Amino acid sequence: MLQSGVIEPRYVKIMLNKIAEEQPYIMLADGVIIAHAGVDDGALDTGMALLRLPYKIAFADYMQADIIIVLATHNPQKHLKALAQLNEFLEFYDGGNVIRRAQDESALINEITRHI
């Protein structure tokens, strides 16, 4: 998102600081969390990025995740449709496991677009 101009460098720094201090992430599905900073923290557009880890890591001493979705938006309303589609994909199409099984980025994009 940084390379594509969706966020400024400060967004990453603020998000990481908030994760360490305030823990602003939400478990969307088993092993899937979403992390973000605020709309005024350097978001230039709306976007999502996905990180798939080889194994689950602990967050906040009670959650474990191997999929981290980063959300950025410059408008508090603009991202709501994408967030609803993501939630539907995770809940109704076993999206977490679809993400885990994807062999590469292209396969993952095809699977996600097929379901939403």
UniProtKB/TrEMBL annotation:
Subcellular location: Cytoplasm
Superkingdom per UniProt: Bacteria
A single BP term in Gene Ontology: phosphoenolpyruvate-dependent sugar phosphotransferase system
GO molecular function (one): kinase activity
InterPro entries recorded: Ascorbate-PTS_EIIA_comp, PTrfase/Anion_transptr, PTS_EIIA_type-2_dom
PROSITE patterns hit by this protein: PTS_EIIA_TYPE_2
Domain PTS EIIA type-2: from-to ranges: 1-115
Keywords: Cytoplasm, Kinase, Phosphoprotein, Phosphotransferase system, Transferase, Transport
Cellular component, GO annotation: cytoplasm
PANTHER family associated with the record: ASCORBATE-SPECIFIC PTS SYSTEM EIIA COMPONENT (PTHR36203)
Reported function: The phosphoenolpyruvate-dependent sugar phosphotransferase system (sugar PTS), a major carbohydrate active transport system, catalyzes the phosphorylation of incoming sugar substrates concomitantly with their translocation across the cell membrane. The enzyme II UlaABC PTS system is involved in ascorbate transport.
Name of the molecule in the record: Ascorbate-specific PTS system EIIA component
Protein species of origin: Kluyvera cryocrescens
The gene coding this protein: ulaC
